[in-house]
């Protein structure tokens, strides 16, 4: 018995925010904040906020725009955050709803009925609640059979979810497993932080992982995988039911001590992340290529985590020993920004149709934790 990827699904919000729109809003907020805190800035108690710049954002990250669930409040200088209305408990939660939307696409693509699915895994960075599990709600919305559970490994949630699904199939727990990645990343992003306000977007992806004896003729065999973690505080989000209250002063600035910046939203030490994660991921890929007797040069495509264009370019260069064309390591973060665990799956979903039988590729994640996952796949039929 082998585990394979039978299909993928993608749900994208209807609204998008360009860098120019985001920067206009941020700079208006900066003017407002500086005016309100003029006396404290003059006294040296706080630092003046500086403007953001659309061109710099694109050059530094590769991001040009991002899809969002709640556009107007994010761009309102008086709010600068998404506003997603709470729903009654007898209505589908927003995270389960977008997860189910992506999952339906994967089911339709594979010609699979919901009742044929034996397990649902919701694997994402930001779960809407502690319990009941979002995955069990998705199971109910789709009317799949079997069982469901949530899991979180930040930006590596999708690859860890794929490997977990493979284990469930190999262990006989299910023949067909939906791995769904609903990522409302704007909810954990501080849009008042000049260093990070442009990073994330919202989306949902899904993969159908199945036993090869029931998979459709056109599928992807999982030929190897490796998961690794290594603790680091360089990417962190402390929001949770034990510490969800934020300080009264949520002003943003690179000088966190003087600004009273809460760490209940996304924070990162970008330079350290770049320096430490790039060699870690490149080494993981090369080691696993060797372990599975795969020549890296024979990887037709690497669907890498979509966090930063410069990181992806350098990882690909370290693996292949040469400059890599975007066709070999496609980018979707220019349109979607960083969508956490969903990024590599969007790239796989959008840039895999040209594969022929026998050609191989790599789905690779890396992010907070640190965590990294490498899933090697081969096209069948």
The protein's oligomeric status is: single chain
Structural class: alpha+beta
Secondary-structure element pattern, one letter each: EEHHHEHHEHEHEEEEHEHEHHHEE
Quote the average pLDDT. Answer: 93
Q: Helical element count?
A: 12
Described by the principal axes of the CA atoms, the overall outline is globular
As a whole number of angstroms, the C-alpha radius of gyration is 21 Å
- In whole angstroms, how far apart are the ends? 18 Å
Helix percent reads 25-40%
- Stretches with pLDDT under 50, minimum 5 residues: 246-261
- CATH first level of the domain at 221-237 and 263-380: which class? Alpha Beta
User: How many β-strands, per DSSP?
Assistant: 13
Largest sheet: 9 strands, mixed
Plain-language structure description:
The structure is a single chain. With 381 residues, the protein is an alpha+beta fold. The chain has a domain at 221-237 and 263-380: 3-Layer(aba) Sandwich (Peroxisomal Thiolase, Chain A, domain 1). Helices cover 33% and strands 22% of the residues. The protein has helices at residues 19-36, 38-42, 54-61, 71-75, 94-110, 134-142, 157-170, 256-259, 270-291, 309-320, 333-336, 343-350, and strands at 3-11, 15-18, 65-68, 119-123, 147-151, 176-184, 202-211, 219-229, 235-236, 267-268, 299-304, 360-367, 371-380. The strands form 3 sheets. A 9-stranded mixed β-sheet has the order 5-4-6-7-1-8-13-12-11, with helices on both faces. A hairpin with a 3-residue loop joins strand 12 (360-367) and strand 13 (371-380). Helix 1 (19-36) packs across helix 3 (54-61), helix 5 (94-110) packs across helix 6 (134-142) and helix 9 (270-291) packs parallel to helix 10 (309-320). The longest helix has 22 residues, at 270-291. It is globular, with a radius of gyration of 21 Å.
């Amino acid at each position: 018995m082998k585990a394979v990827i039978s299909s993928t699904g993608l749900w994208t919000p209807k609204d998008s925010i360009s860098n120019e729109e985001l920067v206009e809003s941020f700079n208006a907020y900066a003017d407002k904040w500086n005016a309100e805190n003029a006396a404290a800035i003059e006294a040296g108690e706080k630092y003046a906020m500086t403007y953001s710049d659309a061109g710099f954002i694109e050059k530094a990250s590769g991001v040009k725009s991002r899809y969002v669930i709640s556009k107007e409040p994010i761009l309102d200088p008086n709010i600068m955050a998404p506003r997603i209305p709470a729903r009654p408990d007898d209505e589908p939660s927003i995270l389960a709803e977008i997860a189910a939307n992506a999952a339906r696409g994967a089911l339709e693509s594979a010609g699979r009925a919901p009742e044929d699915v034996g397990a649902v895994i919701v694997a994402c960075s930001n779960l809407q609640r502690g319990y009941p599990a979002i995955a069990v709600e998705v199971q109910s919305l789709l009317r799949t059979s079997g069982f469901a559970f949530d899991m979180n490994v930040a930006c590596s949630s999708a690859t860890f979810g794929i490997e977990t699904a493979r284990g469930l199939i190999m262990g006989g727990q299910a023949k067909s497993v939906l791995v769904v990645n609903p990522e409302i990343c704007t909810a954990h992003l501080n849009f008042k932080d000049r260093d990070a306000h442009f990073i994330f977007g919202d989306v949902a992806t899904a993969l159908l992982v199945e036993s090869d004896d029931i998979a459709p003729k056109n599928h992807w065999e999982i030929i190897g995988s490796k998961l690794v973690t290594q603790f680091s505080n360089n990417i962190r989000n402390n929001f949770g039911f034990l510490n969800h209250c934020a300080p009264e002063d949520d002003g943003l600035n690179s000088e966190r001590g003087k600004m009273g910046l809460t760490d209940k939203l996304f924070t990162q030490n970008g330079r350290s992340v770049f320096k430490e994660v790039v060699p870690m991921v490149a080494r993981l890929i090369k080691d696993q290529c060797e372990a599975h007797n795969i020549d890296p040069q024979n990887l037709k495509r690497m669907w890498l985590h979509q966090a930063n264009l410069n990181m992806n370019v350098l990882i690909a260069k370290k693996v292949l020993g040469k400059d890599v064309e975007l066709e070999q390591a496609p980018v979707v973060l220019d349109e979607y920004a960083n969508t956490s665990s969903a990024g590599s799956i969007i790239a796989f979903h959008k840039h895999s149709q040209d594969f022929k039988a026998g050609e191989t590729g790599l789905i690779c994640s890396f992010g907070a934790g640190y965590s990294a996952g490498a899933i090697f796949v081969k096209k069948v039929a």
